[in-house]
Design a protein that fits this description.
disordered N terminus, 151 residues, Rossmann fold, 38% helix, 5 helices, alpha/beta
Length: 151
């Protein structure tokens, strides 16, 4: 098997980072907070993380921020990925981050993916969310961005 590589934005011009094994040994929780019932994107990213070497815990649909924070702590994850396609992303993300901090896990990097308006992406990044990903981003770019944060 050969490893694929893809140029990583903002990591240096022309720098290519392999995605196979990029997340080896990392534990990542992929969660679907709120009432959104669309999970194809979350499943695709969970499989991509697995293929990049991560151990992935997928919560399934319609989980509360309380449940997500508790599972993140119980599973001792290295990162939390929230997949949100509904318009309630601001509330769900801020509540999940607050609950992680309440559980003593505020240092766990949180990533957000889904239908996130550009203005909200900037606000999330300014608030400490470690990456915001949309459906138009190549999977290699997502994996490489997460791998950089977890390195």
């Amino acid at each position: 098997m050969t490893s694929s590589s893809h140029a990583v934005p903002d990591a240096g011009a022309g720098l290519a980072v392999p995605t196979v094994g990029a997340l080896k040994g990392k534990r990542i929780l992929v969660a679907k907070p709120g009432l959104d019932g669309h999970d194809i994107g979350a499943k695709i990213i969970a499989l991509a993380f697995r293929d990049a070497g991560a151990s992935v815990i997928y919560t399934g649909l319609r989980k509360s921020p309380e449940y997500i924070a508790r599972i993140a702590v119980d599973e001792d994850v290295d990162a939390v990925g929230l997949s949100i396609l509904s318009g309630s992303h601001n509330e769900l993300v801020s509540r999940t981050v607050a609950l992680l901090a309440e559980h003593g896990a505020g240092e766990i990097p949180v990533f957000v993916g889904g239908t996130i308006p550009a203005d909200d992406r900037a606000a999330f990044l300014a608030a400490g969310i470690r990456g915001v990903f949309t459906s138009d981003m190549p999977l290699d770019d997502v994996i490489n961005a997460v791998a950089r944060v977890l390195a």
